[in-house]
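call fold(seq) -> tokens
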Amino acid sequence: MYSRVPVVAADSGGPRETVVHAKSGYLCEHDATDFADAISRVLAAPETQWREMGAYGRERVVQHFSLDAYAQNIEAVICDMLETPTSVSAVMGILLTLFIVCTSATLYLCATYL
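ret:
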């Protein structure tokens, strides 16, 4: 989607969360015929339609799944946790969450840019 290309993916797991059916691509059942039909729809569509789908997908990725969006979501979660009255165990949970978030972000950056 980041490459501005309509996506054809299985309707489960991550794709169900990221692909908006008929807007950024097509979600299919785990069936070869369904995949073939979806690919045919993309290939048969006018260029303007698949460019619009690609642009929508790119915008969706940038808004919801980019590093900036990830950082904003994590910041919002941390701020919510810090605004809530906490016990010692809750503080430990926050610290553990911060450690996991930082580790995940570091691994993401390494995998993306190295």
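The two ends are 21 Å apart (CA to CA).
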